[in-house]
């Protein structure tokens, strides 16, 4: 059967056939395009919108992951800024069209609809590699005096897109689009409708189409889909007193948006492994920047347009010797030889400034060196521990408006009074609400597994000093409560107070929610993260062994023989054998030596490793006083997930 040529296709009329014959080399486009989206189903793309989409400046977003490093934990969450921006544009048009139909008195024009849609499409043009890793961590670390943000990058890339592709648009409209992206009037005409600036980026309460899209999209692709009905919320929107308000019956849906935002940040965006890989990528980029100054690309639209997540591949295949350090870090990521979480703690929001001043990498390293004992950790060369080996992180988790209730900034109307709006009172929607809407997640990381225990000891020493030094004291009750002792961590003398009356917070008050928010709870060690001195020493990084791989028989014999030698060593004059500290290091009490097998191996209990491949088993050497192998030898953090 002969193939039918394009010009013989019966679906073409004679005029169309003539056009094809005369312009076979022309790449023509259809007047209207549809895109099948997993969140919004069919999305109509107008010819005007396609002018912006079909450019290298916008297509670049295909190579920038929406959730940065989260895909290393949830592989399906590998969606890009490309589809998110199209989703935001779709919702932006939908919302403005709904307002135009339901409230003709607003005089919303087709120009308004088109420019709001373009603003939604282009709002993330300025994101760099791994999204917020670039502008939130990398740029501040290598350019501490820079105020550059990805919003500024979006404006630069929008100008570049328009200029290079010859898009016919007035300067007035371009300034309007930029201000819509920023969420405030800056350079546009003062006569532009104020409520339009709450659609793409809502500075009043955070309810905007950007959030509507990413909450649905991210939740879906993380495998935790939300039940929020965004279409209902869009239809509920109404402009009253020049701001977007919602029907009071849809308050539960809006409350769920804020709650879901908090959950996404708490469980997914700030997952410990995703954050660890962020810091590893950050270190790799900083190493590259020393050689090639990639941070300067933020000032060049042509250079910035080439920056995507693909920079990792470009670095890995490079032959330049100056990139070896970055390549080594990327190899560690591939082998899952990651930095480790030493400790984590949730702190009340009002304590953040004081805690940040007190708990720093340099203080932890100083305390760790003071705490070091060669009897306990003979394999550690403490002189090599540097401030750069420790990361102290403070992340504010909130519902969208920091410590404030975001619902206090949303206005509602009712069916009885559709043209009057007011704030909802707690009794209008719920009496069961959080007492605070923000908290601070503090984490301490080590870049080398072998330093895990000693860094933890240093951190706990600093933490104890901070707890003791609080002034004014929280209350007599809190002052009398002793912090649970940290394993093997030495005590430190009382230091000067880190409380600053100028902080935007009242002094810590243990009388508020005593059981859960007392000073003791906030500033005591996290006993769930406590490790033994040998933790992280069995699988030193760089040897390419899996964290869960069993130690060889010969290695176990050497450990046991070393323990026998130490257990029979002469007394040091204090009633202890000179090598008694090594007992803790090996996690095998001397009294248990009689239980050794004929091959000289200690008793071993096997269990599956949480983060290992299915079926991978790890030997767990039983610790003194523990029959369940609670302290396992290995390099993986004991924090779940």
TrEMBL record:
InterPro entries: dGTPase-like, HD/PDEase_dom, HD_assoc_2, HD_domain
Gene Ontology terms for molecular function: dGTPase activity
Positions with biased composition (Low complexity): 475-497
Polar residues: bias regions: 498-516
A single BP term in Gene Ontology: dGTP catabolic process
Limits of the HD domain: 81-215
PROSITE patterns: HD (PS51831)
SMART domains: HDc
Basic and acidic residues: bias regions: 556-567
Segments for region (Disordered): 470-516, 531-580, 592-641
Cellular component terms (Gene Ontology): nucleus
Protein name: HD domain-containing protein
Lineage start: Eukaryota, Fungi, Dikarya, Basidiomycota, Agaricomycotina
């Amino acid at each position: 059967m002969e193939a039918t040529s394009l010009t013989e296709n019966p679906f073409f009329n004679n005029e169309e056939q003539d056009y094809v014959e005369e312009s076979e080399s022309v790449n023509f486009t259809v007047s209207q395009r549809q895109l099948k989206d997993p969140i919004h189903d069919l999305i109509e793309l107008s010819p005007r919108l396609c002018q912006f989409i079909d450019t290298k400046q916008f297509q670049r977003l295909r190579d920038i992951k929406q959730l940065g490093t989260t895909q290393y934990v949830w592989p399906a969450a590998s969606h890009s800024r490309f589809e998110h921006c199209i989703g935001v544009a779709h919702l932006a048009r939908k919302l403005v069209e709904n307002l135009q139909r339901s409230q003709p008195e607003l005089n919303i024009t087709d120009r308004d609809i088109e420019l709001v849609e373009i603003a939604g499409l282009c709002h993330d043009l300025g994101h760099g590699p791994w999204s917020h890793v670039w502008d939130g961590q990398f740029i501040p670390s290598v350019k501490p005096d820079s105020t550059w943000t990805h919003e500024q990058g979006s404006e630069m890339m929008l100008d570049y897109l328009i200029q290079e592709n010859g898009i016919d648009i007035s300067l007035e409209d371009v300034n309007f689009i930029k201000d819509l992206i920023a969420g405030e009037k800056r350079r546009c005409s003062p006569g532009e409708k104020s409520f339009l600036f709450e659609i793409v980026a809502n500075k009043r309460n955070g309810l905007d189409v950007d959030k509507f899209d990413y909450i649905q999209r991210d939740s879906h692709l993380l495998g935790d889909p939300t039940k929020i009905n965004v279409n209902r919320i869009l239809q509920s929107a109404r402009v009253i007193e020049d701001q977007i308000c919602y029907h009071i019956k849809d308050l539960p849906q809006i409350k769920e948006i804020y709650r879901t935002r908090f959950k996404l940040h708490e469980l997914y965006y700030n997952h410990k492994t995703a954050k660890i890989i962020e810091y590893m990528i950050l270190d790799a980029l900083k190493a590259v920047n020393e050689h090639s100054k990639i941070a300067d690309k933020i000032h060049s639209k042509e250079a910035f347009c080439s920056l995507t997540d693909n920079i990792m591949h470009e670095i890995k295949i490079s032959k330049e010797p100056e990139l070896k350090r970055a390549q080594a870090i990327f190899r560690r990521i591939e082998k899952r030889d990651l930095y480790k979480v030493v400790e984590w703690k949730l702190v009340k929001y009002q304590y953040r400034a004081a805690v940040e001043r007190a708990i720093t990498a340099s203080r932890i390293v100083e305390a760790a060196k003071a705490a070091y004992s060669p009897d306990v950790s003979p394999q550690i060369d403490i002189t090599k521990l540097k401030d750069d080996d420790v990361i102290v992180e403070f992340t504010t988790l909130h519902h969208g408006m920091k410590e404030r209730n975001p619902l206090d900034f949303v206005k509602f109307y009712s069916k009885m009074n559709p043209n009057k709006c007011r704030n909802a009172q707690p009794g209008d929607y719920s009496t069961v609400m959080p007492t605070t809407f923000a908290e601070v997640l503090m984490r301490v990381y080590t870049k080398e597994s072998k330093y895990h225990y000693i860094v933890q000891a240093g951190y706990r020493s600093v933490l104890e000093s901070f707890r003791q030094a609080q002034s004014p004291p929280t209350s007599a009750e809190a002052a009398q409560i002793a912090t649970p002792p940290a394993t093997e961590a030495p005590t430190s003398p009382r230091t000067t107070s880190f409380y600053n009356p100028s902080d935007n917070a009242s002094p810590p008050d243990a009388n508020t929610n005593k059981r859960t928010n007392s000073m003791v709870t906030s500033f005591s060690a996290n006993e769930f993260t406590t490790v033994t001195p040998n933790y992280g020493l069995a699988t030193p990084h760089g040897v390419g062994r899996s964290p869960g791989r069993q130690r060889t028989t010969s290695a176990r014999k050497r450990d046991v023989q070393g323990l026998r030698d130490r257990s029979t060593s002469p007394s040091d004059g204090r009633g202890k054998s000179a090598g008694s500290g090594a007992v803790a290091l090996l996690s095998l009490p001397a009294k248990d030596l009689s239980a050794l097998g004929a091959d000289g191996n200690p008793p071993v209990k096997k269990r599956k490793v949480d983060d290992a491949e299915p079926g991978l088993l790890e030997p767990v050497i039983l610790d003194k006083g523990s029959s369940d192998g609670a302290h396992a030898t290995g390099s993986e953090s004991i924090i779940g997930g």
